[in-house]
Write a structure and sequence with these properties.
The chain is mainly alpha-helical and about 130 residues long. It has one helix at about 15-134, and strands at about 10, 15.
Amino acid sequence: MGHPGRSAWTFAGVPLERAMAEHRERREHVDVFKLLREKEQELEQLLAQTREEAQRIVEEARRQAESLLAQTREELQRLEREYAERAQRESQAITEEILSKARAEAEAIEARAKERFAEAVAMVVERILGGLRR
């Protein structure tokens, strides 16, 4: 008898070639499942990293927004102070201008009154003396 061919060998009652093919198939299925599990784990890790990164981005955006809001409030307060100071200066300038004009008018009235005072005294004296002479 010659050397038996491969197909003549058996493993657990199954021809060896068929048993090897089934083994390869099972191993390929196992490899596919293993690969799928590995890919699923990689995707879960990537998703977790993406969520963490998204959270960091949101937190950074919130910090920047809060910082911008604080800067805006400070700028608004500065502008309010500046406006109040400017309004106070303008009000003071208007008040001083009005007082200056009022003083000038009062001085002019006083000067006219002094000029006429002598005339008024002379007139009063003349009437008094004129009334006495009658």
